[in-house]
Amino acid sequence: MLRINSRPNTKLIAGAIGLGLLLLIALLPLALNVVLPMFGLSIEPPISNLHAVNLAPSLNLPHLLGTDALGHDLVKMIAYGALGSLSVGLCSALVAVTLGNVWGASAALAGGAIDSLMMRFVDALLAVPSIILLLTLSSILSAPELVEHFPPILLKALGVTNYTDGLLPYFIVILAITATTWLESARVARARVLAIKEEDFFMAAQALGSTFYDLLSKHLLPALATTAVVEGTLLVSDAIIMESGLSFLGLGLGPSTPSWGSMLKDAQSCLTAGNWWAAVIPGLLICFTVLSVHMLGEGFFASKRARGKISA
Amino acid sequence: MIIRRVLAAIPMLFLVSLVSFALMRALPGDPVDVMLGSAQKELPAEDLKVLRQEFGLNQSPAKQYMLWLSGWLKSDSLASTNALGRSYRDGRPVKEVIIERIPATLTLVGVALIISFTMGLSLGILAVVLNLKNKKAETALTSALLTLYSAPNFWLAFIALAFLASPYSSALVNLPILGLHPPGAQPSLAYAAEYLLLPAIILSSRRMAKVALYVRTLALDELGKEYVVTALAKGLPLRSVITGHVLKNCLIPVVNLAGLSLPALIGGSVLIETIFCVPGMGRLMVESTFGRNYPVLMGLVMLYGTIVILANLLADVLNNVIDPRLQQ
């Protein structure tokens, strides 16, 4: 008979699995950079080895997953690439959600003409497909004419010198991704604050003379935080896909920083040599990371709904 | 109602144009600097001044914006093409450069939109039917759809390319890839259909999965409602309940999703066109990004924004037609 398959339990389990998988992936770079050095061990960054080019995956160590066209060991490349992909994903999601919520909440609180002006700006940017905005911004942001005009403090903080770009590519990629992804959460935050403004408890708190700070910290922020976490997880997966797309085009973190996207880019050239593993493995990793982020987000949402913090 | 929506779209278009113009002017240095690079040191100052005048750079930013905007609105006159700017790469008017790339992209995105919605709807219905008949098969189907939704399009694209280029594939499929027509042949619609089939299928993959999952959720929600129980209780077969009642009620959000899908598909086409060498707007976008060809880039931002706004408008109008309740 008719039984609707939307029990929150399955989603909670899926969420737990997602969290586990993500932790596993996130542990890779952590283990490489923090844990192993603590025990005096270290794995050297992947180096090219022209004597071991395009080796197929095999159980014969040292190349468990094979090597790419330049002889980089794929296991190491994946571990180091995870650092690039995940950090860009996490940072841009964090910045985007914060910016979006502050913008949306301010618009809703300000109301009137300021509100509509702020939101029409968001609407206009939303009308442009995100990758178009992403490409345009990354082209503009990385223009040498503009980089020269960056404040010196910023350049120093990013470790840019005459000889090295430091963290500048990270900064540009994260900025470009953030600028295209904060819009949706601004809309959600505004709708949320507008709804809360009409709630009885909020009006009662206002009538009782609560200060603005109290209203913000006791009523608005907790309400925004729940949705922000769900949005944030989904944005992480979007940002990972965006970064891989940018890197694939050659606009990503640059040749010195491996990421899963740049691995895909490098693998493209050796596909004709029959080297399918260098292309399949990073792609599968992106796929599974995005999938686990989705499962985590759904699970979190389901758990909040089960506790009645979100109305369906 | 429809008239109000159309009127609301006009300020949006205006804002998009303002944003793209502001982006173009955000860069230090003007088009003349970028075009000439270090060569400008060797040019006499008077020549530079004449060049700047030709680009309209001696006027106030507001005036420049008006000139740029009028370039879009006016039909082909020399003044309007000059105002829109010229491609830094070959000096051709931006309008001309972009217009010749439009058909390939529209065909690709159109075919992908049709595939993603026909396939997505059918798979979504299949998932609903399986949910009632065979839970395990349904779980397998939804997991496969979720995985497909998580896979980046461009990755699937070049895996497909690698497969087609490998010796194993010729026995199975024989699809032409790369470009729009055989080298040296006249471009035609038949060639375009043949060459764009695989790119369109891959471009539609994520959207298709999303539509299928969306339809599944919507239909399962509908199935729990009282009118379904009533219909089943009075002896209607499940099949006609699903096709006659449930699907009709799911159609409105799906049409809405179609309007929202266009930006995603157009965005996805950028990478797909690059991989399959389709000479469309997306590839022009990538070429201009690398060449820092800002007039073309901003023209494209403006055009993409316009297409998306018009698509959303169309979805609104369609919804009004499907659901008379919305007209009030």
Keywords:
heterodimer; A: 312 residues; mainly alpha; disordered N terminus; B: 328 residues; globular
Describe this structure in words.
The complex is a heterodimer of chains A (312) and B (328). Chain A is globular and about 75 Å long. Chain A is built from eleven helices and no strands. The two termini of chain A are 25 Å apart. Chain A is 71% helix and 0% strand. Chain A has 312 residues and is mainly α. Mean pLDDT of chain A is 77; it is low at 1-5. In chain A, helix 1 (8-38) crosses helix 2, helix 1 (8-38) crosses helix 11 and helix 4 packs across helix 7 (168-198). Chain B is mainly alpha-helical and 328 residues long. Helix content of chain B is 76%, strand content 0%. Chain B has 14 helices and no strands. In chain B, helix 4 (61-73) crosses helix 5, helix 7 (102-133) runs antiparallel to helix 12 and helix 9 packs across helix 12. The radius of gyration of chain B is 25 Å and the shape is globular. The N and C termini of chain B lie close together (8 Å). Classes of the chains: A mainly alpha (312), B mainly alpha (328). Chains A and B meet through helix 3, helix 4, helix 9 and helix 11 of A and helix 1, helix 8, helix 9, helix 10 and helix 11 of B.
Q: Could you give the order of the helices and strands of chain A?
A: HHHHHHHHHHH
The largest sheet of chain B, given as strand count, sense and whether it forms a barrel, is: none
Distance between the termini of chain A: 25 Å
Shape of chain A: globular
Q: Tell me the overall shape of chain B.
A: globular
Number of helices of chain B: 14
Radius of gyration of chain A: 23 Å
Strand element count of chain A? 0
- What would you call the structural class of chain B? mainly alpha
The whole-angstrom Rg of chain B is 25 Å
Low-confidence stretches of chain B: none
Largest contact between chains: A-B, 50 and 64 residues
Structural class based on helices, strands and sheet pairing of chain A: mainly alpha
Tell me which oligomeric state these chains represent: heterodimer
Number of helices of chain A: 11
Strand content of chain B: under 5%
Instruction: Estimate the helix proportion of chain A, in percent.
Output: over 70%
**In which range does the helix fraction of chain B lie?**
over 70%
